[in-house]
Amino acid sequence: MKPKIGFQALAESHEQPFVVIDKNFRIIALNQAYERAYATDADQAIGKHCYEISHSHSRPCSEEGEECPHHQVYEKKTTHSCLHTHRDETGRTYWVRVTSFPLMADDGEVYVGESIQELTQKDGPTETGEAVHMVGESPAFLAMIEQLQLMAQSRVPVLLMGETGTGKELAARFIHQHSDRRDKAYVTIDCTILNESLVESELFGYERGSFTGSVGSKQGLIELADGGTLFLDEIGELPANIQTKLLRVLDTGEFRRIGGHKTLTADVRVICATNRHLWEAVKEHQFREDLYYRVACMTVHLPALRERRQDIPLLADILLNRLSRFTRRRYRLTDAALELLQSKNYPGNIRELRNNLFAASAGSIDGWIDRPQLLTAFKNTPTSLQNPTPAEDDAEAGFPLTGEDQVTSGDDAESRRIATVLKEQYGSRKRTAATLGMSTRTLYRKMKHYGLR
Questions:
Q1: Going along 44-123, which residue ranges are E strands?
Q2: CB-facing half-sphere around the CA of 101: CA atoms within 13 A
Q3: DSSP alpha helices (H): ranges in 218-370?
Q4: Could you tell me if 273 and 168 are in contact, meaning their C-beta atoms sit under 8 angstroms apart?
Q5: CATH topology of domain 305-386
Q6: Could you say which DSSP state residue 320 is in?
Q7: pTM score
Q8: N or C, where is the chain less crowded by C-beta within 10 Å?
Q9: What is the pLDDT of residues 309-334, one digit of tens each?
Q10: For the residues of 327-349, what is the DSSP string, one character each?
């Protein structure tokens, strides 16, 4: 198949990767930027499906769970833009914005022109872990990536909100590496692991003799991050008097070392993260309201793993490949095991998924991981061990209740109410009991009475 001459000239007029596709998803024209982006050439690409070249898929991206601009253009005959996950010749996953619009040929046939804008730098996410390691293809994940990319273009403070294990530190590093500060320092501090005096000395530094044992002066993390990015993990745990001093830095860029008299300045982009509702802490007078408005200029919600189940197979594959590099043994999941992984709710998110897989691999004899190894791993994960109630069933390990978990005996209003709340709380007896206003022991006794698993 030869490229259509008119469309080929149109493609070459674009600086960014550009491709023309027919109604069957086949490429009929492309420019050199597209060839470079996907390590192909016109002879190889023309006549092939677009998803084969850009996604390494064997079927259209819409069948893989992604939004398809191709369908939108053909159905509505209007321009459409969306976020997509692409892969380069090395298998590196990165994210692009695809803008598609209808093209009319001389014979009246409609084609799709697609301009592709890469949203991540070449030194961004990789599947080998050498750089920022963020992976996903689900709509929730892609929407988050687009938000992070927008944040990277700004210099205002950012607040990352998400449950434990959702990758807030990776998101902060992503913002830094895609900002104009990428060549400067990236400094991080966990506000939960240091007491008040240590947090202050770590952030602001100290002068010689400012306290017992300070035999010399020391630069603080704010000073070290000058020109770059400072990441404050779990900022909600920051002591009250440190909140006041941090507010001054954000307002004026000025600070003093402990025991020092000289006012220092630093140009620092601050990114904060929290796994709690920070505004609730403000209302409870545990966090300064004025500091909240300074650190939450732009807010990004990081989706929990249960909100992006579509990404679990990809994440599991990458995590097992990483494990294989250490053990020099290949691990694979059976279809049944993968189905089981995707049914879990993961209160510990990606960190819990990783722990489950690593624990299950220990029980694998031939490298294959099946349901029995996963079920054993689930019962021994920290989230299961922390549950004070009996955990003989899958619901206590974080699984949603299925049809056979509903009422099997009794048919009164109370049994239906308990069953409903159990589903809403993803099978957690502790949260269900709190919602219903009864003790966990009472709930367990009623569950047994009504035949609720």
A1: 80-87, 93-104, 110-118
A2: 7
A3: 221-224, 240-252, 278-283, 289-295, 312-327, 335-343, 349-362
A4: yes
A5: Helicase, Ruva Protein; domain 3 (1.10.8)
A6: H
A7: 0.65
A8: N
A9: 989 988 998 889 888 887 888 899 99
A10: HT---EE-HHHHHHHHH---TTH
The answer to whether 110 touches 102, Cβ cutoff 8 Å, is yes
Helix-strand-coil percent breakdown of the chain, rounded to 5? 45, 15, 40
Q: What is the pLDDT, as a whole number, of residue 88?
A: 64
**CA separation, residue 52 to residues 58, 86, 100, 344 (Å):** 6, 10, 18, 31
Low-confidence residues of the chain, pLDDT below 50? 122-132, 384-411
Cβ atoms within 10 Å, residue 438: 15
Q: From CA 375, how far away is CA 127, in angstroms rounded?
A: 27
Q: Please give the CATH architecture assigned to the domain spanning 139-301.
A: 3-Layer(aba) Sandwich (3.40)
What 3 state SS string does 11-51 have? HHCCCCCEEEECCCCEEEEECHHHHHHCCCCHHHHCCCEHH
Contact 220, 261 (CB under 8 A): no
Nearest-angstrom CA–CA distance, 95 and 359: 31
CATH 3.30.450.20 corresponds to the domain 5-118: yes
- Residue 224, token pair as written in the block: 């070290």
Q: Residue 123, Cα to own-chain centre: how many angstroms?
A: 18
